[in-house]
Amino acid sequence: MEEDGARIDMYYEASRDFYNNFLPVLFLKTEEQAVKDAKAAGEDKYFPALEKRLKETGSGYLVGTSLTMADVGFLEVLLLCVEFGGDDFLDDHSDVKQYYQRLVATPLMAEFLKSPFRKRKNDEQYIKEVKRVLNRE
């Protein structure tokens, strides 16, 4: 059980590292550059690791046989990949794409993703305000 906890932490923290590719979007770099950086990071590091781990567990989840924070963390960044990079962003990694599609189809997750509680892509007004606060405009 301690091993599972350590793996959940490890995969969740890896998802945060991958997520960092999207943090500076429109504030410090262009959306196009962020997508390019995320695609490169996914191809080089994250997608192969996800595919390997999903094959190891055989459960469809990164750790154990049910949804954990490791899965939620990667779902969050995979949502960004698709939202910014388009529906074909994951096409070269069928196991990752199936994992993503299964997670977003989970009833409670699907309900949340349609709700107003899900953070959406930053709009122009929000971007302008952040730039103003950071004195970038």
Automatic annotation (TrEMBL):
Keywords, comma-separated and alphabetical: Transferase
Pfam families: GST_C_3
Transmembrane segments: none
GO BP, sorted A to Z: glutathione metabolic process
GO molecular function list: glutathione transferase activity
PANTHER family noted in UniProt: GLUTATHIONE S-TRANSFERASE (PTHR11571), GLUTATHIONE TRANSFERASE (PTHR11571:SF230)
The protein, known as: Glutathione S-transferase 3
Annotated source species: Magallana gigas
